[in-house]
Amino acid sequence: MIERLLKSSIQLSKDILESNEWCRTALYDVINKVTFNSIYTHEMMIADKVRINSYYKAIRRYVKSGDIVVDLGTGTGILSLFSAQQNPKKIYAIDHSDFINIARKIARYNNINNITFVQTNSRDFKPIEKVDIILHEQLGQALFNENMIENILDLKKRILKETGKILPGKFELFLEPICLKEEYKIPYIWENNIFGLDFNFLKHDDEIEKYKPRFYENQSIEHHSIDHFLCEPQSILSFDLNKINDANEIPKFIEASKEVVQSGLMDGLCLYFKVIFDDEINFDTSPLHARTHWSNPLFRTESKHYNDGEIISFKLTMEDLIKRETWLLSIR
């Protein structure tokens, strides 16, 4: 009883904080700062060859001598270090985490001296001149959940030249019906019938509701757990930060229909995204492609068999882009 009350109180406090825009921003900053103070987080990111190779190629192509570059959320400083090799006029590497001290040491050890490290929140960053390139990798598992849109558009409005460029700027979001490998399937409790023991009544049991966590319908899956996609992958949303100026330009309600091309049991819909620097330099986080450090969110559904040619239609409502637990999926 006490434990349940404590959990409820903590959740209520969090909900109250998040209901206020200033408190929500402050709460996000604290959580983000703690997360990126972990050395293992940075080890995973720089071990991600898909990510690293794509950013390296893009920086080699787009950062020019004489450019002024801002690296938002510099972390280990890896993107600034790549940029420094292109001999730009100036590089600002900004991060509000204390980990920026490690980035300074990495640059110093590698005899790279043309980077200005600034420990600050991006909203408080005010350079004396406009910049040519905003470089970033504020990409969460669900694309939006590291506050990319608000942070980038704020910098774009305040410090980017009219001829400037956001790298990367273009993104596509995918939500694909999947069939999991048998050993990775986790049915809803009411779908179970184990050695004659029937759990089906729990589907309509009122008491079971209080035991469902906030992310009950939204889980994450391992890269190798998917057997196949039921449909041909097709993006449900695309946008270019170089072309939009307000977060409200990104739709929060999406409807889609997909034709089944490989029959099987649908265990849910898997979310992934594509990062596009240009037609030649891009990568995605599809669980069926080369592995990245991003895991894949899964919108769980009750298992249902679909045959080739059948249509799967769904609606996705993203009440708050940053908070994936507010995203609601309904299958029609």
From TrEMBL:
InterPro entries, A to Z: Arg_MeTrfase, PRMT_dom, SAM-dependent_MTases_sf
GO BP term (any one): methylation
Keywords: Methyltransferase, Ribonucleoprotein, Ribosomal protein, S-adenosyl-L-methionine, Transferase
PROSITE patterns, per database record: SAM_MT_PRMT (PS51678)
One annotated GO molecular function: protein-arginine N-methyltransferase activity
Gene Ontology CC annotations of this record: ribosome
Keyword check for Methyltransferase: yes
Domain Protein arginine N-methyltransferase: residue ranges: 173-319
Membrane-crossing segments per the record: none
SUPFAM superfamilies for the chain: S-adenosyl-L-methionine-dependent methyltransferases
Name of this chain's protein: Ribosomal protein L11 methyltransferase
